[in-house]
Specification:
The protein is an alpha/beta fold. It has 14 helices and 16 strands. The protein is elongated and about 120 Å long.
Length: about 425
C-alpha cells in the first residue's frame, strides 16, 4: 500500500513538471534557391507547431537567387516564431543573399572567423525571372537601387546598421564577425550551438523573453523532395538535361517508333524548362545552341563537306559559354562540362544521326523493288495483254507496251503488284 502511494505521488510530480522547452534548428549549406525557401517556410510552420522558443538557421552560403531571397525575408518578417540566423561554422560566409537573410532575422549571430557582406545585385544571380544576365546600364542601376532600398528597409526594421547595409550592396563591402558586432550589424558572437542557445536565454524578441537555458535543440531535416530540388537547380544539371532532351527528341525523330528516346527527351526538356525559369539564363546562349542543332541537321541532309558541322560546333561552344554568366562563380558553367559536351554533341550528329539518316536513303536491297532493272529472256510472247517471264526462280505475269518475242532479252521497268512491266533491253 505504501509503495503504491509513493508511485502515485511520483507520477503526479512528473505530470505536473513543465515540459522541456525546444529550440528548432535547420542547417543551410549552399546556394539559396527555391528549395531553400520552401525548406525555411516549412520549418517556420513546424517550429510554430512545436511551440519552439525560436528557430535557429545555421547558415553558410555564397549567395543565391533574388526571388528566393525575397520569399525568405517575407517569411521572416511575417513569422510569429522568433528567427535566429547563425552564420556558422568557423570559416562560413553569409555572402550576397546570405547577407539579406542574416539582416532580416530577429536575432543575427555569427561564429568567430566568419564573414558577412558582398551583397551587390550581380552576385544575387542577376535579374529575376530568367532574363539575360547582362542587363544594360539603366537596368543595372535600377536593380542596384532596388537592392539598396530593400536592404535599407530590412536593416531599419531590425534596428541594424543601415549605412553599412547599403555599402554591402553599393560597394560589395564584407566584414568579419568581430567587426560586424562592433558596427551593430549582428547581435552576438557564439563559438558553437550550445553557447548560442545559452546566450539567447533571456533575450527579448517582440516583447517576449526567450527561455532557452535548458531548451532541447531539435533539428528539422530537409524532406526528400527538397533535397532533390536543392541538387537539381544548378547550371550543370540544366545543361546536361538540355543535352539529353536534344539527343532524345532528335533520336526519336530519326528512328520513329523507338518511343524510349522520345519519352526520355520529353521529360528532360520539361525539367530543363523548369530550371530555365528559375536560373538566370542568357537567351542569346540558348539561341546559339538551337542554331548549332539546325546546322548539324542541315549538314546531314545536305552535305557541305563539314562546313555546316564546323559552324555548328562553333555556335554550340559559344552558346554554352554564354548560357550562364561566367563572371559569377555561383552560376558559372565549368569548361570541364562545356568542352566534352561540344565534342560529344558534334560526334553524336556526325556519326550517329548522320549515318542513320544516310542509311535510310540507301537503295532498297530487299523486296520486289530490287527486281527493277534486272534483265532476263522472255519465256512467251509478251504484249499489252500479258505474257510470262521466269525471274528469281519464279514465273511472273508480264506486260509490255512494245511487243516482245520469246527468247528476246528484256528488262524489268516496273513492279505492279504481281505483274512485271517489262521492255526490250536498251543497247
Amino acid at each position: 500500500m505504501k509503495s503504491a502511494l509513493i508511485c502515485l505521488m511520483f507520477c503526479l510530480v512528473c505530470a505536473s513538471a513543465p515540459a522541456a522547452e525546444k529550440v528548432a534548428l535547420i542547417k543551410i549549406n549552399g546556394a539559396i534557391g527555391p528549395a531553400t525557401a520552401s525548406y525555411i517556410a516549412r520549418s517556420i510552420d513546424e517550429a510554430r507547431t512545436q511551440n519552439a522558443q525560436c528557430l535557429v538557421i545555421q547558415l553558410n552560403t555564397p549567395g543565391g537567387l533574388l526571388d528566393s531571397t525575397q520569399t525568405i525575408v517575407q517569411d521572416f518578417l511575417g513569422s510569429t516564431v522568433p528567427v535566429v540566423v547563425y552564420v556558422s561554422p568557423t570559416g562560413a560566409t553569409a555572402t550576397s543573399a546570405g547577407c539579406f537573410i542574416t539582416l532580416a532575422a530577429n536575432v543575427a549571430a555569427m561564429a568567430p572567423a566568419t564573414t558577412i557582406g558582398a551583397a551587390h545585385p550581380v552576385m544575387l544571380g542577376g535579374i529575376p525571372s530568367g532574363q539575360e544576365q547582362k542587363p544594360d546600364d539603366t537596368m543595372k542601376q535600377k536593380l542596384e537601387n532596388f537592392s539598396v532600398s530593400y536592404i535599407e528597409t530590412i536593416a531599419a526594421k531590425r534596428h541594424r546598421n543601415v549605412d553599412w547595409a547599403k555599402s554591402a550592396v553599393r560597394e560589395s563591402a564584407s566584414i568579419t564577425a568581430e567587426k560586424a558586432l562592433e558596427l551593430r550589424v549582428i547581435d552576438l558572437i557564439a563559438v558553437d550551438m550550445p553557447e548560442l542557445v545559452k546566450r539567447l536565454n533571456g533575450r527579448v524578441v517582440d516583447g517576449k523573453a526567450l527561455n532557452t537555458a535548458t531548451a532541447e535543440v531539435s533539428e528539422i531535416k530537409m524532406s526528400a523532395s527538397e533535397r532533390v530540388f536543392q541538387q537539381l537547380w544548378r547550371p550543370e544539371v540544366m545543361f546536361i538535361l538540355m543535352l539529353i532532351a536534344i539527343y532524345g527528341i532528335i533520336g526519336e525523330m530519326t528512328t520513329p517508333g523507338a518511343i524510349l528516346p522520345g519519352v526520355v527527351g520529353a521529360i528532360a526538356l520539361i525539367l530543363a524548362l523548369y530550371l530555365a525559369a528559375i536560373l538566370p539564363v542568357n537567351v542569346t546562349g540558348v539561341v546559339l545552341i538551337a542554331l548549332a542543332m539546325m546546322l548539324f541537321i542541315f549538314d546531314i541532309y545536305a552535305p557541305t563537306h563539314g562546313v555546316l558541322t564546323m559552324g555548328g560546333i562553333i555556335s554550340f561552344l559559344i552558346g554554352s559559354l554564354m548560357l550562364f554568366n561566367r563572371a559569377d562563380p555561383l552560376f558559372r558553367l565549368s569548361l570541364s562540362y562545356i568542352i566534352p559536351a561540344t565534342l560529344i554533341t558534334a560526334a553524336f550528329f556526325v556519326f550517329v544521326i548522320g549515318k542513320g539518316l544516310r542509311a535510310q536513303r540507301l537503295p532498297v536491297k530487299a523486296g520486289a523493288e530490287t527486281m527493277v532493272g534486272k534483265k532476263m529472256t522472255a519465256s512467251t510472247p509478251i504484249d499489252s495483254q500479258g505474257g510470262r517471264v521466269f525471274v528469281e526462280g519464279e514465273n511472273w505475269n508480264a506486260v509490255s507496251d512494245t511487243p516482245v518475242e520469246p527468247g528476246e532479252v528484256i528488262e524489268i521497268a516496273e513492279v505492279q503488284g504481281l505483274t512485271l512491266k517489262v521492255q526490250p533491253r536498251k543497247g
